[in-house]
Amino acid sequence: MDMRRLVGRNVRRIRLEKGLTQEAFAERSGFSQQYLSSLERGTRNPTVVTLFELASALGVSHVALVEPDGEVKAAKPMRRGGRRKPSAEKEPDDR
């Protein structure tokens, strides 16, 4: 998965959901409209600080910008030793 394209898609989707043009988002975020355009096209590689600032300007969590399909999903439970349970393992039935 190309993270630059994923971030660009999420930024564009959220910006449009908020009813913002690139120009309005540029004013709100402090980044140029040209930078935001290239970011949305997936040609920029934003820093962690940039992601945080963009998310703040959009009024969302920074996680929303890097999450596939824009959905924050709960992590799978961890096993002892910090390893995730394999998905083929079944949970015991409490019946």
From TrEMBL:
Any matching Pfam family: HTH_3
The upper taxonomy is: Bacteria, Pseudomonadati, Pseudomonadota, Alphaproteobacteria, Acetobacterales
Q: Which PROSITE patterns match?
A: HTH_CROC1
UniProt KW keywords: DNA-binding, Transcription, Transcription regulation
Q: Please name the SMART domains in this protein's record.
A: HTH_XRE (SM00530)
Family matches, as InterPro entries: Cro/C1-type_HTH, Lambda_DNA-bd_dom_sf, TransReg_Diox_bact_type
**Basic and acidic residues: compositionally biased ranges:** 86-95
Ranges for domain HTH cro/C1-type come to 11-65
* Name of protein: Helix-turn-helix transcriptional regulator
What is the native source organism of this protein?
A: Neoroseomonas eburnea
Q: Where is this region: Disordered?
A: 70-95
Bias class Basic residues marks the residues at: 76-85
PANTHER family, per database record: HTH-TYPE TRANSCRIPTIONAL REGULATOR (PTHR46797), HTH-TYPE TRANSCRIPTIONAL REGULATOR SUTR (PTHR46797:SF23)
Entries under CDD domains matching the protein: HTH_XRE
Alphabetical GO CC annotations of the entry are: cytosol
This entry's Gene Ontology molecular function terms read: DNA binding; DNA-binding transcription factor activity
Source domain of life: Bacteria
